[in-house]
Specification:
The complex is a heterotrimer of chains A (367), B (315) and C (293).
Chain A (H helix, E strand, L loop, with lengths): L15 E12 L2 E13 L4 E5 L6 H8 L7 E9 L2 E2 L5 H7 L4 E4 L3 H4 L6 H13 L3 H14 L5 H5 L8 H14 L4 E5 L7 H18 L2 E6 L2 H7 L2 E6 L2 E7 H6 L4 H9 L48 E2 L5 E2 L4 H15 L12 H11 L1
Parallel strand pairs in A: 3-8, 3-9, 6-7, 7-8
Antiparallel strand pairs in A: 1-2, 1-4, 4-5, 9-10, 10-12, 11-12
Helix pairs in contact in A: 4-5, 4-7, 5-7, 7-8
Chain B lengths: L1 H24 L7 H7 L5 H11 L5 H13 L13 H36 L4 H15 L2 H15 L16 H35 L2 H9 L3 H18 L2 H18 L5 H10 L3 H29 L7
Helix pairs in contact in B: 1-13, 2-3, 5-6, 5-8, 5-13, 6-8, 7-8, 7-11, 8-10, 8-11, 9-10, 11-12, 11-13, 12-13
Chain C lengths: L2 H4 L12 H19 L34 H37 L1 H15 L3 H12 L3 H27 L3 H8 L4 H12 L1 H24 L11 H8 L7 H29 L8 H5 L4
Chain lengths: 367, 315, 293
C-alpha cells in the first residue's frame, strides 16, 4: 500500500475504504459525472450509514465500487478491501469478493429474486460458489440459513418461488443468500424502503441480531435517517455526489454541522404534534448535468451567501471525528451554538428528538 | 392441470367448427358444384340425379356438413378427383417428407438463431449488434423462394456440390442421401425461421438482462457466463415460447414455398398441385391436416408454458 | 476541480433519418415511378422475339431476355405495376374490413368483441399464405382473386391494431366528453376515435404493403397468383427457375428488385413506427403478424 489510509495510521488497514472515488456515466459522446471524489472508510465490524435524498449518488457509489453497474459506469479512484484495490481485480477475483467478502441486499426483494428458480436453488448457488457446498450439505446449510433469518417452515419454503412469498420474507431470503458466503460486510441498499413499516422494523432487528452474532460490518444506504440512526455507528450524509458531512451517529444527530443535514433532520416527520418546527428543505437535487457552481446545495440553502458559489467546499473538522463541507462552517457553528443556548430550557427542535430508538418505536406502533 | 387443458381445448372448438365449415363449403365453388366434381361437366341428367343422391346432396345442408365432419374426424376426406386414391393415403405419403424437412430446418434455425440472439444481446449497441440486426433483417426480408434460387445457383449450378431438386429419402434408410437432399431446402427455410427466432429471443434477452434478479446474481458472485446462460436465458425463453405459435405459422407458410422451390415432395407441394388441378377433396384434406397440426402445436406450447412458468396457475 | 469539469453536457440535435431510410425511399420512388409510367415508356413486356431468347444482359436488354425473347427489364417494370396494384388493392380491402371490425370490437367490447375476435381467430387459424391459397382455390385464378386473397389475409392485423388502439383511447377524457354530448356510437367511432388512431394505422399500411407484395409474389411463384401473360415478379421467378443453368440472371434480377422493394417497405415502416414511438426499438407491430414465405 502506497498511501496510508487516513485514520488508520499504523493500525491494520480498514476493512473497506473508498479513496477519491468518482463515478461517471457514458452518455452519447460525453460523460456525466454523478459521484465526485468520495473518501469513506469502514472498520471491521463497523456499521456505516449513508444517507441522502434519491439521486445523491449513495447507491451508485457502492454499486459502482463493486462494478455492478456495467460498462456504462466509469470509475476512478481506489476501492480498497483489506488494503487491496478492487479495480485491479479480474472478473473472477471480483466474483469471489461479491457474495463472499461483501454481501448485498437491495430495495425490492421480490423482483431481486429470480422468478423461475426455487428459493433453495438460489441460496444453494451462493453456497456452491463461496463455500463449495453441494447436495445434502448445501440443503442442510440452506435450511439453517433460512432458520437463521427467521423463516418458519424452512423445508417447504426452500421448494417455493419468490412470488409465493411476501416481500418481507423475500428480503429475509435475500439476507440468507447474502449470509451464505459468510461475508465480512453487508451492503444493504434501501433494504426496507419497499416494505410495510412493521416488516421494516423486523428486518432491521434481524440485521442487528446477525451483526451481534457474527460481528459482520454493515453499510446501510437509506434516505431515511431514522432507519440509519437505528442501526449505524457512524453516518455519512451525501448530497449531489459528494459527502457533505460525516460523524458518529449520536454526534451527527445531536449537533449537525451542515445546513443540509439540519434540513434532513428537521424534515423527519414527527408524531408528537407540533412541538417540532418543520423546516423541510425546499427545492430538489440538481441534475448531474446542470450542477450549480460552487456548493451544490447553495441554491436550496437557507444560510447561503454570495461566496458559496465560488469553489466547492471541502470537508473540514467540525468536532471530534466530525467533518462538514460548508463554506460558512465557522460562522454557522457560532450561530447554531448561540441559538441552542437561547432555546435551552425551552424546547430545542433538534436535541429534543435525540431519543431515537424510542421515537422509532412510536413510529412503528402507529403504522 | 387437466382442467386447464380442457378449457384450452374448449376454446378451440368454435374456431375449429367455423373453419371446418368454411373448408367443407369449398366444394360448392367447383364449376357444377360437388355433383359436377363427381361426374364431370358433360353428364346426363340421370347421372347427375344418381350422383346427387349418392353424395347426399338432397339432404339438408347441416346434415351434409355433419356427415362430412364425422368422416373427416375419422380421417376420411374422400377420394382424390385426380388419382382416385383416398385423400388420407396421399397425405400420409407426403407428411413424413415435410416433417423431415421441418426437423432439419428447425435445427438450422436453432443453430443460427440462438448464437445470433445471444451475441446481439450481450454486445447490445456495438457494431457487432448492428451487423447482426442487419443480418436478421435480411433473413426476414429476403423472400424464401429467391433465397432458395440463389442457393441453387451457388451450390448446384456453380459449385455442383448438391442436387438442385430434392428427393425424399427417409433419414433412417440412407442418412447421407437424405441430408444431401435436405441441406439446401433446410438452409432456405431454416435461415428464414432463424431471423424470427433471433429477433424475438434477443429482445427477450435484452429486457431480462435489465431485471433486478440479474444484479442479485452478480452480487452473489455468479460468473457472467452463468448469468447469461443460466439466469437470463431461462427467463428469456419463457416469453419466447409464446411466439412459437407464430413461428410455426411462418414455418408452415415457408415450407409450402420451399418445397416448391426445390420440387420437394412434401405436403405443401401436394396442396399446390391440388389447387392447380382443383382437386377439392384433396385441398380440403391438406388444409384440415395443416390446421390441426398448427392448432395442436399452439395448444402444446400453451400447456408447456403453464408447466414451465411457476407463476402461472393453471387450476 | 471545477464543476464544469465534471459535467460534460451534450447538445441535443434532431437526428437525421438514417441512410437506409433515404435509400429505401429513393428506391421505392423509382419503382413507383416505373409502375405508374410503364405505359408511357418505350417498352413492351409482351413483344416476343424467339431469335433473341435467353440472351444475357446487354446494352439493348439491360436485364437480358426471357425464353420467348421478351425484354426482362420491361417485364420487371410492368411487374412492378402488377405487384403494386395488387398490394394496394389488398391493403385497402384489409383496412376496409379490418379497421371497422377492430373499432366495433374494441369500442363495444362484450359479445360483439367475442364474436368478432373469434372470427379473426378463424382467419388466423391458417398461416396467411395458406389462407390466400384456399381463397384462390375457391375464387379461381385471376388478378382479382389474388388481390382479394391477399387482402383477406391482411384483415387480422388491421383488426387487432385498431382494437388495441381503441381500448386505450376509450378511457381518455376527450372520448368520454364526446360521449357526454350524446353523440352516437358510430359518430364517436369513426369521427372521434378513427382520426386519432390514423398514425398507427398508417404504419400498418406500410408494413402490410411489404407483406402483400411478398404474398402476391409467392402466390405467383407457386403458380396460383396473377395468371400469365400478365408480367409479375413471382411468375418471372417461377419461369426463371427452369433456366437456372442457361440464364441465371432471369431469376436473379427480378428477384433482386422484389427483395429490394420488400426491404425498402420494411425499412420505411420501421422508421415510421420509431418516429411514432421513440421508446420502441423500431420493431413494428406488424412483424408479429408477418407470416409468410
Amino acid at each position: 500500500m502506497l498511501h496510508p489510509v487516513p485514520g488508520s495510521t499504523g493500525a491494520a488497514p480498514p476493512l473497506l475504504s473508498l479513496e477519491d472515488f468518482t463515478v461517471a456515466f457514458a452518455q452519447g459522446a460525453g460523460r456525466t459525472r454523478v459521484v465526485h471524489g468520495i473518501d469513506l472508510t469502514l472498520q471491521r465490524g463497523e456499521a456505516l450509514g449513508i444517507v441522502g435524498e434519491s439521486g445523491c449518488g449513495k447507491s451508485v457509489t457502492w454499486l459502482a465500487a463493486l462494478r455492478l453497474l456495467g460498462k456504462r459506469a466509469v470509475t476512478t479512484g481506489r476501492v480498497l478491501l483489506n488494503g487491496r484495490d478492487l479495480s485491479g481485480f479480474s472478473e473472477r477475483e471480483l466474483a469471489d469478493v461479491r457474495g463472499g467478502r461483501i454481501g448485498l441486499i437491495f430495495q425490492d426483494p421480490t423482483s431481486c429474486l429470480n422468478p423461475i428458480l426455487r428459493i433453495g436453488t438460489q441460496i444453494g448457488e451462493a453456497l456452491r460458489l463461496h463455500r463449495g457446498l453441494t447436495g445434502k450439505a448445501a440443503e442442510r446449510e440452506a435450511l439453517r440459513l433460512l432458520d437463521r433469518v427467521g423463516i418458519a417452515d424452512a423445508p417447504r419454503r426452500l421448494r417455493q418461488h419468490a412470488h409465493e412469498l411476501s416481500g418481507g420474507m423475500n428480503q429475509r431470503v435475500m439476507i440468507a443468500i447474502a449470509l451464505a458466503g459468510e461475508p465480512d460486510v453487508l451492503v444493504a441498499d434501501e433494504p426496507t424502503t419497499a416494505l410495510d413499516a412493521t416488516i421494516q422494523a423486523q428486518i432491521l432487528d434481524l440485521i442487528r441480531d446477525i451483526r451481534r452474532d457474527t460481528g459482520m460490518g454493515l453499510v446501510l444506504i437509506s434516505h431515511d435517517l431514522g432507519v440509519i440512526a437505528d442501526l449505524c455507528d457512524r453516518v455519512a450524509v451525501m448530497y449531489a455526489g459528494r459527502v457533505v458531512e460525516t460523524a458518529a451517529t449520536q454526534d451527527l444527530l445531536g449537533s449537525p454541522r451542515h445546513p443540509y443535514t439540519r434540513g434532513l433532520l428537521a424534515a423527519l416527520p414527527s408524531l408528537e404534534g407540533p412541538r417540532v418546527r418543520l423546516t423541510p428543505v425546499g427545492g430538489t437535487v440538481p441534475s448531474p448535468d446542470a450542477m450549480p457552481p460552487g456548493c451544490a446545495f447553495a441554491p436550496r440553502c437557507a444560510y447561503a451567501e454570495a461566496h458559496c458559489g465560488n469553489g466547492i467546499p471541502v470537508l473540514q473538522p467540525a468536532g471530534t471525528g466530525h467533518l462538514s463541507a460548508c463554506r460558512r462552517l465557522d460562522a454557522l457553528m457560532g450561530e447554531w451554538q448561540r441559538q441552542a443556548a437561547r432555546e435551552a430550557g425551552r424546547h430545542d427542535p433538534v436535541v429534543q428528538d435525540l431519543d431515537w430508538p424510542n421515537r422509532d418505536r412510536q413510529r412503528e406502533l402507529s403504522a | 392441470m387437466t382442467g386447464f387443458i380442457l378449457r384450452r381445448l374448449a376454446q378451440l372448438i368454435p374456431v375449429l367448427l367455423i373453419a371446418s365449415f368454411a373448408i367443407w363449403a369449398m366444394i360448392f365453388a367447383v364449376p357444377g358444384g360437388p355433383v359436377g366434381m363427381m361426374v364431370g361437366e358433360n353428364a346426363t341428367p340421370e347421372e347427375i340425379a344418381a350422383a346427387t343422391r349418392k353424395l347426399g346432396l338432397d339432404r339438408p345442408i347441416p346434415v351434409q356438413y355433419f356427415n362430412w365432419l364425422t368422416h373427416a374426424v375419422t380421417g376420411d376426406f374422400g377420394q382424390s378427383l385426380h388419382s382416385r386414391d383416398p385423400v388420407t393415403k396421399l397425405i400420409g405419403e407426403r407428411l413424413p417428407a415435410t416433417l423431415q424437412l421441418a426437423l432439419v430446418s428447425i435445427l438450422v434455425a436453432l443453430v443460427i438463431g440462438i448464437p445470433v440472439a445471444i451475441t446481439g444481446a450481450v454486445k447490445e449497441g456495438s457494431w457487432v449488434d448492428r451487423l447482426l440486426n442487419g443480418w436478421n433483417a435480411l433473413a426476414l426480408g429476403v423472400p424464401t423462394f429467391w433465397l432458395g434460387i440463389l442457393l441453387i445457383l451457388l451450390f448446384s449450378v456453380e459449385l455442383r456440390w448438391l442436387p438442385s431438386a430434392s428427393r425424399y429419402v427417409p433419414l433412417w434408410e440412407d442418412p447421407n442421401q437424405a441430408l444431401r437432399s435436405l441441406i439446401l431446402p433446410g438452409l432456405t427455410l431454416g435461415l428464414y425461421v432463424s431471423g424470427i427466432l433471433a429477433r424475438f429471443l434477443k429482445a427477450s434477452l435484452v429486457s431480462e438482462a435489465r431485471a433486478d434478479y440479474v444484479r442479485t446474481a452478480r452480487a452473489k458472485g455468479v460468473s457472467e457466463r452463468q448469468i447469461v446462460g443460466h439466469h437470463i436465458m431461462q427467463n428469456a425463453l419463457l416469453p419466447f415460447i409464446t411466439i412459437v405459435g407464430l413461428m410455426v405459422a411462418n414455418f408452415i407458410g415457408g415450407a409450402v414455398v420451399t418445397e416448391a422451390v426445390f420440387t420437394y415432395p412434401g405436403l405443401g407441394r401436394l396442396l399446390i398441385q391440388a389447387i392447380s388441378t382443383r382437386d377439392y377433396p384433396l385441398i380440403q384434406g391438406c388444409i384440415v391436416v395443416i390446421l390441426v397440426i398448427y392448432m395442436a402445436i399452439s395448444l402444446i406450447v400453451d400447456i408447456l408454458y403453464a408447466v414451465i412458468d411457476p407463476r402461472i396457475e393453471y387450476r | 476541480m471545477t464543476v464544469q469539469e465534471g459535467v460534460l453536457t451534450k447538445r441535443r440535435r434532431r437526428p437525421l433519418p438514417p441512410l437506409g431510410f433515404i435509400i429505401s425511399l429513393g428506391f421505392l420512388t423509382v419503382v413507383i415511378f416505373g409502375a405508374v409510367f410503364a405505359n408511357v415508356l418505350p417498352i413492351d413486356p409482351l413483344a416476343q422475339n424467339i431469335v433473341d431468347s435467353l440472351k444475357p444482359p446487354s446494352g439493348s436488354h439491360w436485364f437480358g431476355t426471357d425464353e420467348l425473347g421478351r425484354d426482362i427489364m420491361a417485364r420487371v417494370i410492368f411487374g412492378a405495376r402488377t405487384s403494386l396494384v395488387t398490394a394496394a388493392g389488398a391493403v385497402i380491402i384489409a383496412a376496409l374490413i379490418g379497421v371497422p371490425i377492430g373499432l366495433v370490437a374494441g369500442y363495444f367490447g362484450g359479445w360483439r368483441d367475442t364474436v368478432l375476435m373469434r372470427f379473426i381467430d378463424v382467419l388466423l387459424a391458417l398461416p396467411n399464405i395458406l389462407l390466400a391459397m384456399a381463397l384462390i382455390a375457391v375464387l379461381g385464378r385471376s388478378q382479382t382473386a389474388a388481390l382479394i386473397a391477399v387482402g383477406v389475409a391482411g384483415v387480422p392485423s388491421f383488426a387487432r391494431i385498431a382494437r388495441a388502439q381503441v381500448l386505450t383511447l376509450r378511457q381518455l377524457d376527450f372520448v368520454s366528453a364526446v360521449r357526454g354530448f350524446g353523440c352516437s356510437s358510430s359518430y364517436i367511432m369513426f369521427r372521434t376515435i378513427l382520426p386519432n388512431i390514423l398514425s398507427p394505422l398508417m404504419v400498418q399500411v406500410i408494413v402490410l404493403s411489404s407483406v402483400a407484395i411478398l404474398l402476391e409474389a409467392a402466390l405467383a411463384f407457386l403458380g396460383v397468383g396473377v395468371p400469365p401473360p400478365t408480367p409479375s415478379w413471382g411468375e418471372m421467378l417461377r419461369t426463371g427457375k427452369s433456366y437456372l443453368y442457361e440464364a441465371p440472371y432471369y431469376a436473379v434480377l427480378p428477384g433482386l428488385v422484389l427483395t429490394l422493394t420488400i426491404l425498402s417497405f420494411d425499412t420505411i415502416g420501421k422508421q415510421m413506427s420509431r418516429a411514432l414511438d421513440p421508446r420502441s426499438g423500431g420493431g413494428t407491430p406488424g412483424e408479429l403478424e408477418r407470416a409468410g414465405p
